[in-house]
Amino acid sequence: MQQNFQAPTNQRYQFVPRVLVFLSCGDELLLMRRADDRPIFPGLYNGLGGHVERGESVLAAAHRELNEESGLQGIDLWLCAVVAIDTGDADAGIVMWVFRGEATGEATKESGEGTLEWVSKERIAALPLVEDIPYLLPRVLSIRPGDSPLWGFYDYGDEGKLRMNFDGDQ
Question: How many CA atoms lie less than 13 Å away from 77 in the CB half-sphere?
Fold first, then answer.
């Protein structure tokens, strides 16, 4: 296949690949409170994750990010959602693969990106969360190993407010 036929155009999206991981242990989820000095989502709670590096698979990136941010390794992850995000930037959007896993041990290290915290599912709604987490997380938590992933699309409306939709939403 010739590479030039795959080249992006202004009629096609270009995406930055990212991963997001939610680990549970019993009734708790491992979340990261982003450091206040971080340029993206300062002070807000999110799952663990980051960019997919050149030459690695999406699943390998999820495992690498999990290890880098928590020290946890060897956790079986399953794909729960794939979300295309139109950021409004003409050059590139984001595609985010969202994974889940069951942890059997505590996180073993801290990250310069934020502070790790095991949070009971009942307490999550009271936390300052990244904007899409209240909408995304319940859907992700409903996906079991072997289920089909959710397919989503985010964009920003005319007022700059994030709009989130998953196939099948009414």
Answer: 27
Placement of tokens 């206040």 in the chain: 36
DSSP-derived 3-state class of residue 114: strand
The domain 14-166 having CATH identifier 3.20.20.140: the answer here is no
Q: CA 66, 71, 73, 75: dihedral to nearest 10 degrees?
A: -60
Phi-psi region of 4 (alpha: psi -120 to 50; beta: other; left: phi over 0): alpha
pLDDT averages per 10-residue partition of the chain, 170 residues: 57 86 94 84 92 97 94 93 88 92 77 87 94 95 95 90 84
Largest CA distance in the chain: 52
Q: Helices in the chain by DSSP H: which ranges?
A: 58-70, 133-141
- Cβ atoms 119, 23 nearer than 8 A: no
pTM to 2 decimals? Answer: 0.90
Helix and strand element counts for the chain (H, E): 2, 9
- Asked whether the CA dihedral 42, 154, 143, 15 is positive or negative, the reply is negative
